Description:
Number of strands of chain B: 31
Strand content of chain B: 15-25%
Oligomer: heterodimer
CATH topology of the largest domain in chain B: Aldehyde Oxidoreductase, domain 4
Structural class of chain B: alpha+beta
CATH class of the largest domain in chain A: Mainly Alpha
Structural class of chain A: alpha+beta
Distance between the termini of chain A: 42 Å
CATH architecture of the largest domain in chain B: 2-Layer Sandwich
Radius of gyration of chain B: 27 Å
Helix content of chain A: 25-40%
Amino acid sequence: MPKQTFILNGKTVTVNVADNVRLLWVIRDLLGVTGPKYGCGINVCKACTSHINGRAFNPCAVRVGDIENSDHVTTIEGLPKTVGRELHPMQRAWLNRDVPQCGYCQPGQIMAAVALVKKVRREGRSITEADLDHIRNICRCGTYTRIREAILEGAEHM
Amino acid sequence: MPDLPSPTTAAVDRRRFLGFVLGGATLVAAADLGLFETRASAQVPTLPQPAELYDLNDMLTDATRPTANLITVTINKNGTASFALPRAEVGQGITTSTAMLIAEELALPVDKVHVTLAKARPELVWNQLTGGSNTTISTYTPIRVAAAVAMGALLDAAAIQLGDTVANLVAKGGVISAPDGSSVTYGELATLAASSTTRSVDVVLKDAADFAVIGKSHNRVDALAAVTGRKTFTTDLQVAGALPTMVCRAPTLNGSPTKILNRATVLAMPGVTDVVMIDTGIAVRARTFGQCIDAVRTLRAEWTPGSVGRDSDADIVAELKAAQLPIPALPANPLAETIEQDVLFYFRSNSAMDTGSAIADVRSDRAEIWAGLKSPITAQEEIATALGLTPDAVTVHVVQAGGSFGRRLFFDAALEAAKISQKLGKPVKLMWHRADDARVGRAHPMALSRIRATVSGGEVVAFQQQHTSVETDYRHGLGELITDMAANLPTGNQGFAQTIFTLTQEIPYNFGVVDQSVIETDERFNTGSMRNIYSPDVRTAAELMVDRLARKLGKDPYHFRKELLRNDRTRAVLDKVASVGNWGRAMPAGTAQGIAIHKEYKGTSACLVEIDCRPATVNRDIPHAVTGPRVTKVVYAIDAGLVVNPRGLEAQMQGGINDGIALALTSSLHLRDGYFLEASWDNYFYTRQWNTPPSVKVIVMPSDSGQPGGAGEAGVAATFAAVACAYARATGKTPTYFPINHHELSFTPKPTVPPIPQSPTNGLKLTY
């Protein structure tokens, strides 16, 4: 069985598993890192949103065999370390606004929010209402109002 | 002349309760529920409907009274308090509000109170059901009594330790101090205050005027765990040997497998350990869920026909029409004019983000189950029956769940996992695929609500509503086997439906003869409640008619409601949203305001919305999205009586608002040829960021009520109704069905064979 090696939350990990298993299951079922959640398995709900080399992606839609040894995969568990703090400013904004209800989608929401802020900065602008409208992550508890507030607040401190 | 109790004495009496210090090594305190306060008698308005006098929450709360003394608060040696809450936390915030109640009576910081979820405790009978937005209503007093008993025992022990009297001591932040400066911590007192025998004690609860925690906004106790990914749900739990397991299901609703055609092929697939047939499908167990998906997609089987044959939406609509009965005739009045209107509500899914899931470890003589369960006692009893075990051999752990919306009143995945584990003789971690959750999981039943209003001499003289619905499954009973069995008896579920409808529905307007009734038909579907049972549909049909009546009588929708409301609290919330929302402001054509009310759960609420139905908005371009009319603004006022956590209540209203918008505009299930077409969140259109209102204001009304109201479901009905009314005013057409987009299918249905879609592989091309 192929050996799959990549960098997960700053540490090199190696797993024996077939190439076509999606990365989400390698992370959750084999490595026991459960921050990224399953919500659909078809890259629609975005509950598993994590980062690859600093960009948002959905590991439910990536074969582990397509990940390079040098790829940095960051889940919510590894997000604070990317800024060398106990909590990322976006997580602090989330706490400040008391965003979560059931909490299931929130790791994906936060990972998406951080990537969105970085994306608009690369584009030399700040977040607009239209950017918020285009976020695809579903929250079935309907925490959207506080998510929008928290993203704007978190962006100020990033 | 006999002495009358002074008002002060009466106020203290209402806060005086009996409790117990239980025998044990550390301090454990309990409330006595048998001597629960008598309910304050309700004022009797003119021609009240039953729910105004005794409602579903009274029934649910009364059912918990005989067992309230089984609810205990423990003081630990490290100075913290712990409490195993016999309810399910599914996002509604009850672990936070419960910690606040205990912190209040114990004078402890909220973070020193650890609230966990109790496993199934059959001795609690009707006191372990999470439903009807009843948790705070029914537990507000017993939990405080138990905490107050513990506080009293700590003070008694401290008085001995510090050589002073209780009256001189001050408890604060987990420390009890005497005037001479000496002090002792709760941790030091935990064992000293313990009693070797159980003894009863009198306690007086804190006066509301002295509340330091209750009524002050507090952030969720589990928020840090949620934002760091440390909050664990059922599928995150690691139970030895419980490998990922999924079920391959029939191509039609509730079909059963009769034969596996390629078992050997599937067993030989990478990672697959087991393939086994159960009544609901074919289970596969594998090293990863990804390999389960591959196996489920490869399985070929023969199936029995489904429970609804090849029926489609139109067949069920015809069935509901056939089940409608004549509305009772009123005395003939030649001057009266009647307006009649039917509003149809299609099936909707109560699927949560966290799909149906359970871990089961079934052995020959015992079983252990982990799942998010709102009726764990019923689950324990029914799983035991299915496994041929006695209930005491089945341990049922209640896990925090990623949403419920009514879905987790049932235990479909837990029962299924138990059956699979028993057949395999191995532990399993069962997870439903999103497609399973949407297609086979429970749905809010389709319903047709008929209203006949009678107008005479410029007044509404009668308002009759007949709600005809596909059966709502109440077979979870009140959370234990007795009422569960009663609901399972022939006509038993109908009896539940009648009772619950009668105990929840109200038309709080002076409309002369007011009459509401429910008819239920067709028990072939998997149904249940969905962030309320009847009210969102019943209220929406009614409020649309109220707008029609206002128009007919030449009145403004707000003023018409205000004049005819029979309830001051409801009028107050209505006035509040009208004033904050600037009711009646000039708006461009194609946009409009809508206003509506809903009174339930010991509270009352009003909602004002603004909607934009102009083509530029309706057709706004969001890739792969259902856009449509946009609710641009919501003002929501709720009087929920005594509010434990205003910030939590606001969150529940914000969530309920998004549910109400979804019900009005976008979210429904389509039944075609014997199955529901929706299999994804891009098929079932719950409110998304592009649908959510950019402006939402929730107003929590001040209240001098000593009684808390419900929150979890309270935001939905008034929002749904207000959006419906606004849409009708913006477009000039009163909708006759909901959601308004149901007749356009906005997606390509996924196949039913294989029953679940394959995960894509292009994720690295879609990074941002």
